[in-house]
Here is the input.
Amino acid sequence: MSGPAVDETAVDRLLPAYLGRQRWFSGPPPESATVAAREQLDDGLEWLLVDAAGGRYQVVVGRRPAHAIPEFLHGQDAAVLGVVGDDVAFDATLDPEYARVILSKVAPGEEGNLVRPMGAEQSNTSLVFDDRIVLKLFRRLHAGANPDVEVTVGLAAQGFTSVAQPLGVWRRDGVDLAVVARYLAGGAEGWALALTSLRDLYAGASDDPAAAGGDFAAEARRLGEVTAGMHLALAAAFGASPGDPAAWAALVETQMARLEEGDVDAVKSKEFVERLRSVASPGPAVRVHGDYHLGQVMRTDTGWFVLDFEGEPARPLAERQLPSSPLKDVGGMIRSFQYAAAVALFERDAGEHETLRPRADAWERRNRGAFLGGYYGTAGIDDVLPAAGADRDAVLAAFELDKAVYEVLYERAHRPDWVEIPLGAVRRLLDAR
Amino acid sequence: MSLPAPGAQVGTAESVADPTWFQRAVFYEVLVRGFYDANQDGTGDLAGLTEKLDYVEWLGVDCLWLLPFYQSPLRDGGYDIADFFTILPEYGDLADAVGLVEEAHRRGIRIIADLVMNHTSDAHPWFQESRQDRNNPKADWYVWSDDPERWSEARIIFVDTETSNWTWDPVRQQYYWHRFFSHQPDLNYDNPEVQQAMLDVVRFWLDIGLDGFRLDAVPYLYERDGTNGENLKETHEYLKRVRSEVDADFPGKVLLAEANQWPADVVDYFGEGDECHMCFHFPLMPRMFMAIRREQRYPITEILAQTPDIPPGCQWAIFLRNHDELTLEMVTDEERDYMYAEYAKDPRMKRNVGISRRLAPLVDNDRRVAELLHALLFSMPGSPILYYGDEIGMGDNIYLGDRDGVRTPMQWTPDRNAGFSRADFARLYLPPLMDPVYGYQAVNVEAEMRNPSSQLHWTRRMLEVRRQHPVFGTGTFEVIPTDNPSVLAFLRCEEDDLVLCVNNLSRFAQPAELPLQRFAGKTPIELMGRVPFPRVGELPYFVTLNPYAFYWFQLVDAQ
Here is the structure.
C-alpha cells in the first residue's frame, strides 16, 4: 500500500494522456484536464471528477508500490497513469481489492470476492463479482439521472423481469456515478447468437433459413415478445403522450437532408415524408429504449434480457429521454437483423457474396417476420402502437428509414465499403411507398 | 471382496459395502431378444447374454438394464406382462436368470430389470379372473367402471393408437381403465391385495439376485376424480412403501423411476431421499441434440437451470437414445416441430410424440457429433445409460414398424446373421441391418475391437477415464459463462477434485474465454492424454476448439 503523502498534482499531470488512451474518452488526448472534485475512498484509492475537452469524466486511481507491479496490470499499459513517487498509479477498477471498496460504496451490504472486468465498453466500465453481481461505473457523466439507471429501476418496479435487477446506485449531487445489478450469468449477446445462426446458414446446403439447423426464428419471436413487454412496462412506468407524426416527419426530413445528392429519389422521399405527416392514428409516444439492437439484448438461461438504456450516447441527454413511438425500437431491431446478415456475409470470401446474398435476404425476412409476429402478437401491445394497417406500416417504415439514414452517414464516414448495406435499405423503404 | 453367504438375501458384496454405487455407475441397456442367441432359435436369450458378459466387462459397464424378460404375449415388447414370476420361454428359464446374475456379479457387474407396476397384459391370469364377473376374488384388482367418461381429464398417452383410456370388456360387460394400450389394463392400487402382490414380485426378483428395477410408467398408479391421474400423492406413498421394504431387506438395491414429466415434477419421485434412488431426466436428451443443431448451449443450460436440486443419495439417469422413440413430450410445440423437421425428415420415423432413430443415423453418421454427444452424456450431472449397439455406431431400420427399427440384432461379427445367431436367417426375430453404411459387414464388434481408432475403443477409453473421476457421478455442476454461445463449459467439483469440461457445439472451430480467475495458479490437465495446458492466470482462460471438439480438464495445483 502507498504511503500517506499523496502528491495530488503529480496524478493530475498524468490525467490528459491517460484520458486520451481510454475507449470511453471521446476524441484525441486533451490538452488539459481539470479535477473538479476528488475524494480519498481508501488508503491508496482516490476518486476524481475530471473535466476535459468539454466533457466530465469519472476516474478512480489506485496506487501500489512501483517495485512490485501486480499481475493484474500486466498487458494493461493503457490503464496505467504512470509513476508517482514510489508508486505506480493505475485505473483502480483493475485492482480486485479496490474494486471491492468501490462495490461497498455503491451497494453497501453487497459483497464480492472474485472480481473480473467485463471487457471494454464505450461509456462505462463494468466489473463482475463472483459471476453474481455486476458493477457499472459510468465514465462520461451527465447532469441529472442516468437514463440507464432511471429506466432499469422503473421497469423493475413495474414487474418487468427481463432487465437486470438493480441492487444499488451511487449518486452524488444528483449525478449517477455507478450502479450495481444482478449479473446475467451465462448470457450471450443477441448479436453473437445471430451470427452463429447466419454462419450455419451460409455454410449449409439449403438456401432456406427455416431448414437450417441454426434457425434463429424461435429466438427472434421470443425477443419480439420481450420487446413488447418492455414497451408496455415503459408506458406504465413513465406514462404516454399523444404521438406527433408531424414532429416525426420533421425528424425524418432533417435526417434525409443529410444524404448526398443521388442517394435517393427526391420525389419518393417527399412522398414518404408526406405520408408519415398524414398518419391519422399514430398511437401514443412513450419512453423507449432508444438504441435498440441485437447488441443490447442478451440471451440467458431464463430467456432474453434487455441491457443498456442509455440511448445513443452521441445524442444529448434531453433528446435521449424524449418519448417516441415504440416502433422506433422495433425499427432499430429490424435494422439490426439486416446488419447481422450483412456482417456474416462480409466474413465470407467476396467471391461468395453474390451466391449467398439470397440467403442473407431470406434470413433477414424470416427473422424480421418472427420478431414482428412475437411483438404484435403480445396482448395489449396495440394500445401503444399506431392503428394496425397503413398507419402502423408508415410509422414503422419511418423509424426504420431514420435509422438506416443514420447508418448511411456513419458508414460513409467510417466504412465507405459498407455504405451500400443501409443505402439499399433506404431505397427499399422508399420504393415500398 | 467376499461373496455373500449362500441364500443370504443381500445383493453383491459391493452393494452392501457401498449403497451409493449407482451414483457413479455407467448403465448399459440390453434387449435380451437382440443381444445374443445361445440356443440358435433366432431369438436372443439370457444364456446368450451370459456368454457376452466378457464383452460388457471389457467395455467398462457397471450395470446392465434388461428390458422385460417376463412371460408375455409380446404385443408391447414385453411391457405387457402375463406372469411376473416366469421368464419368457424364448429367453430361457429361471435357472438361466440365476446363472446370468451370478456370472455378472462374479465380474462386478450389476443387473437391474424392467418392472411394469402400472398394468399387466390382458392375458395375465389376474385379469382373466377379474373380468369373469363383478364378484370374483380378483374383481377389484383392475379398474372397472360403467362410465367411460370418468376421469376424462387424464390425457391419452398413445395418441397414435388409442382414442380413450377406457375399453369395453364384453365378458364382464364393463369398461376397464388403461393409460397405455387397450390390451394393458391398469392394476387397481386402491386394493391392498394388489399393493402386496407387487411387493411380492419385487421380493421374488431381489431374492434371485437382481440389483434393482427400472420402474416403468410409475406416475399413473392411482386415479382420482378431478385430476389428470399423474403424480398423485397416493402413488408417491406406495413407492415410498416399496422403498422402505427394499431398504430393510435388500440394502444396496436401486429403484429407477421412469416418470416422463418435467424435472420439477420428477424430483418428487426422489421423495426426501426415501422414494426412488434414481429418475430419468427426459427433457435433457432432446435438448442435447437441439443444442448441437442450433450450435448454441441454451437448449441445455435452460433445462438444467429449471432442474431442481435432488436429495442427497439420489441420482439422475441420463441417456442419448434408448429402445423407445426420442421422446419429445418434454419440449414445447415449437421445439417439437423443429425436432421433427431436423431429425425425422421421413414421416415414417415419427412415432407418437417422438422420433424412432438410433444415435448414429440421428447425427447423420458424423462420428465427431456422436463423440461429442457421448462426452456430454458422460460428464453432465447423472449416471449415463448406453443403449446396446450405440457404442459401435449401429444404425436402424425405420421400415420395420413400431419401435422395432431400433431393436435389430447386435452386430458382433461380419459373419452370417451378424454373428448374433446361427439360426436360419428367416427364423431371426428381426433381420440384422445389411445396408452398406450401417450393415453388420461394415459395423460390428469384431472389426471395431481390432481397430484401435474405432468408436468402440474410444467409448471404452472414455468410460475408463470417467471411472477414474468419481466427480463425474457425484460432483456439483456449475456452468462457466462465456460470451461464445456455441461453447458450453461447466465445472464438476467434489472436494479438491475439479474437472472442467469445455464443449464446442458448433461445426466450426470456436474460441472461448473462460472466467477461471478464481483458479489462478492451477494447471489444467487434459484427461484423455494427461497433457498439461498453460497455467490459469489472472486473465480469462483462453481455449480454442476444433469443430465438435471437447476437453475434459482436471484442474490441479501447479507442479
